[in-house]
Amino acid sequence: PNCPVDQATTVTPIVPTTPTLRPGLSNNCPAIDGNSCIFPFLYEGVFYEKCTNIDNFGTYWCAISVTEDGEAFEYRDCSDSCPRETTVSKAGCPAMNGDRCLFPFILDGVTYDKCTNIAGTFYCATEVNSKDKLKSYGVCSSSCPRDTTLASNVCGTVN
């Protein structure tokens, strides 16, 4: 349809197959195939401003094209130079404080993909930095996966 457009307003359509940036954001993050990531993008009702590992078996990805609503239309795996945010799947296990456990997380140089046993209590990360290092933790609920070996940095007694 021919709609009147205010001459003072510039309209830039977002075409699903053409990566488009939102004003003020850059796409200095290349996907592994060389395409540029587009931030922010919308995926299942959540906006992402960094690469996410949700619903991709732990591999970080980004949108390389979006719909006119900003929904990820095409995606690719992110290169190592891209900013990342660890995202818990909606089905992720809860910590006892109500936060969700984040996997993998790094504690004292060791990468964990399950709750870790420290002095008989199982812990997980509830917040990590961009390199997956633990920032905050919680006690794992009984529904969380558990690593039954004792962490190497703790002293324990075997009965």
Automatic annotation (TrEMBL):
Keyword annotations of the record: Disulfide bond, Repeat
Here the disulfide bonds are: C51-C78
InterPro entries recorded: FN_type2_dom, FN_type2_sf, Kringle-like
What Gene3D superfamilies has UniProt attached to this entry?
Fibronectin, type II, collagen-binding (2.10.10.10)
**Among its keywords, does the record have 4Fe-4S?**
no
SUPFAM superfamilies reported in the protein's UniProt record: Kringle-like
Source organism's superkingdom?
Eukaryota
Task: Enumerate the spans annotated as Fibronectin type-II domain.
Answer: 32-80, 96-142
Q: Which SMART domains match?
A: FN2
Name of this chain's protein: Fibronectin type-II domain-containing protein
Originating species: Lepeophtheirus salmonis
The taxonomy runs: Eukaryota, Metazoa, Ecdysozoa, Arthropoda, Crustacea
